[in-house]
Amino acid sequence: MEFVPAPAVHRVLCADCGTPIVPNSANLCVACLRNTVDITEGIPKQGLYRKSGIYEMDTHPHSHPALVAYCRNCERFLSPPAAWTIARPESPELLSICLKKLKGLNKVRLADAQFTWTDPHSKWLRVAITIQKEVLVNTILEQTFEIEFLVQYDQCPDCARLAVKNTRKTLVQVRLKISHKRTFFYLEEPIFKHNS
């Protein structure tokens, strides 16, 4: 057997802290690169804060409320833009609804997303998200952070229609100022055909 040495790995010092690292285009270590570049910029972490039992908007310009609408009658969540779907707590369907609510996720690559534990009776949902983004040439930075969503009680259109009696979906009014009645006959034929 002959001993073959492994190729030597050349190292350089980080430009900020002086730690020996494998050379990259920025010549910064991962910790210093995270301090200089924020890949989570534009993604809201939490848009509401609690002040004496009342949820108020945060005054930070990039913080948007991460609200998830939930109908208590039929136990469905609002899936943007207008579909109401059944989703169990901590299910992939609910995770998909939460991720659709986030703005700024299209600028990064989503590596992983999962729920973190919260009290079952809590109105907060916590999602741990891992994102990746190329910050410099051939330098990909990965970061994990938590986002909190507030479950807001709302009423879906189906339950709202059931709650109010004698509601109609459509109302058509036709006025005709001519001597013949052919237009009325053309309108009555499809109405009778579809049993409306």
UniProtKB/TrEMBL annotation:
Query: What is this protein for, i.e. what is its function?
Result: Acts as an adapter for the XPO1/CRM1-mediated export of the 60S ribosomal subunit.
Q: Name one GO cellular component term.
A: nucleus
Q: What is the name of the protein in this document?
A: 60S ribosomal export protein NMD3
Q: Which residues form the Nmd3 N-terminal domain?
A: 14-45, 66-195
**Protein family membership:** Belongs to the NMD3 family.
Pfam families reported in the protein's UniProt record: NMD3
Cellular location of this protein? Answer: Cytoplasm; Nucleus
UniProt GO molecular function? ribosomal large subunit binding
Where this protein primarily resides, as one coarse class?
cytoplasm
Task: Report keywords, A-Z.
Answer: Cytoplasm, Nucleus, Protein transport, Transport
Which GO terms fall under biological process for this protein? protein transport; ribosomal large subunit export from nucleus
